[in-house]
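Hi L.,

You mentioned the student needs an example of a multi-chain input paired with its predicted structure. This one should do, with 509 residues in total across all chains.
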Amino acid sequence: MPFESATQAIVALSASPALVDLSTLLGFPTLLDLPFREGYVSSIVYVSLYVSLVAVTLSTLFSVPIAVVLGLTDFPGKGFVKSVINTGMGFPSVVVGLVVLFAVSNQGPLGSLDLVFTREAMIMSQFVLATPPITAISLAAVSGVDRGVRDAARALGGTRLDVALVVIKEARYGIATAILAGFGRAISEVGSVLIVGGNITSADGISKTRTLTTAIQLEARQGQYETAMVLGAVLVVLVLAVNAVVVRFGDRGVQ
Amino acid sequence: MLRATGVSKSYGGETVLRELSLDVDAGEIVAVIGPSGVGKTTLLRLLSLSSEPDEGRVTLDGTDAWAVDETERLALRRRVGMVFQEASLFDASVARNVEYGLRVRRPWGDRLREGLRSVVGGNGTAEAVRESLDVVGLTDETDQHAESLSGGEAQRVSFARALAVDPDVLLLDEPTSDLDPRNTAVIEEAMDEARDRGIGVVVATHDMHQAERVADRVAVLLDGGISEVGPTERVFEEPRDSRTRRFIDGELVY
Ligand SMILES: Nc1ncnc2c1ncn2[C@@H]1O[C@H](COP(=O)(O)OP(=O)(O)OP(=O)(O)O)[C@@H](O)[C@H]1O
Ligand SMILES: [Mg+2]
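Structure written out for the whole complex:
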C-alpha cells in the first residue's frame, strides 16, 4: 500500500499537536475507561483517517486544477460542465458505492485488481464523493477572485501559470473551505463505505475496513450505546481537529 | 519605441477604435485624452500587448507583437508595464506586491527556493522594491498588508509595482481618477521620475488639466480615432481640428 506511510505521517501530524492528543486518549484505556479491547478504537480511527485523508488529498489535487481552469477559461458547454458538477454534489452516495463495488468486482473492469472490501476501494468511492463538492466550492471561490487582480498579474509579466497561482492564492480561504467540505463528506460517509469496504475487522478485533461511521452503526445496532457514543465523540473531535488545522493553514498565507 | 499602426478594435460588431495610430518614445509622456467610453482603456490594452487588434499592428522597437510566438510576445509584454484605474493589489504585503513582477521573471528553481526560505524566515526586501516604493513615498509601508492601505496609497503601490521591473514603457489608465489632490500629485511626480529614467509613459485621462501638467504630447481620442496629436501646449493653445477645439473648450459634450 503506497500511501500507508504518508498517511501515517498525516495522521500523526493532524492528531498530535492539535486539539487532542489522540495517542493518549486512545492508547491508554486506564485514562478514560473505555469499554472495548485495546487497539480496536485506534485501528478504526486510523482506517477512517487513512481512507478519508488519502481520498481528499487525491481529490484536491484533481479538483482544484480543474476548478482553476474552469474559472479562468470560457468555452462552449461550460455551463453544462458546471451543472454536472453541481449535480454530483447531491448524488446519492450509496449509488456511488454500488458502482465502485461493481467496478472492482469480478465482473467489473477493475476486477483483476482484487479490490473488493479493501481500503483502496473505499478510497475510490470517497474520491468520487469528495470531488464534486471540492470542485464546485473551489470553482465558486476562483470565480470570485477580482478580475483586476488577474489582469494585474498578467500585466506584470505573469505567465498563464503565474496567473493561475495568483488566483489560487487569492481564493485560498474558499479552497480551504472546499477541502473541508470534501473531508466532511468523506469522513461522515456511511452507506458507500459499508458497501465497498464491508465493515471488516480481523480475528483479533483490529479494523481492516471498519471506519468510525460503520462501527457506530454496528455498535448502535447491537445496543452498545456507550461504545457508539465514544466513537461518535471521537468522530466529532476528529472533524473539529482537521477543521482547526485547515483554518490555521489558511491563515498562515495572509501576511 | 512602442507604436500602434492603423489598429482597429471592435466588440461584438461595435467598432471602438478605427485605424488608429499612436506611438510613444523613450523618455516622453504622452497623454491620451477623451470622453468616457471612447476607448481609452481599449487602446491601452492594445498597447500593453494583452489584447490583439482586429486590424493593424502594435510594434515594440519594430517587432510586431502579434507576428511572433507566445514566448516572444511574453518577452515583449514584460517590457511594457501597466497601471489600472483600480489598484487591484494582491492579498499580500506591500513588499510582496511590488516584488511580484521581479518574482515572475526569475527561474522556477530560484522561486521555489525563495518560497521555502520565506516560510522559514523571510527574505528581506529587494533594492528595486525599496527604490520603487521610494518614488511614491511609501518606504515606511513596506511590511503593511495591502488591505490596510487607503485608496490613494494602494494606487501608489500599484504604480510602484509596475515601476519595479524597470519597464521600457509604462501605461497608466486614469491612474488618479479616484484620488485626492495630494495622492494625485504624488502619482504625477512619479510619472516625471519615470520619464527621467527614460521610460516612455502613456497616460489615459479625462482630466485635461492633468494632461496639461504632465504631458509632453497629447493625443485626443474622439469617435474611435485620434482627432489630433501634438505637443501639449500647441494642442491646447491652437488646436487644428474643429472637434478637438470644441472638446477642449468643453463644448463637445458626451
Ligand atoms: N470587453 C469588452 N466587451 C465588450 N465591449 C467592451 C469591452 N471593453 C470595452 N467595451 C466597449 O468599448 C467602448 C470603449 O470602452 P473603454 O473602456 O475603452 O472606454 P474608456 O475610454 O476607457 O472609458 P472610461 O473613460 O469610462 O474608462 C465602450 O463602449 C465599452 O462598452
Ligand atoms: Mg477606461
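You could point out the following to them. The pocket of magnesium ion (ligand 2) is lined by residues B 40-41, 173-174 (CB under 6 Å). The radius of gyration of chain A is 20 Å.

Best wishes,
N.
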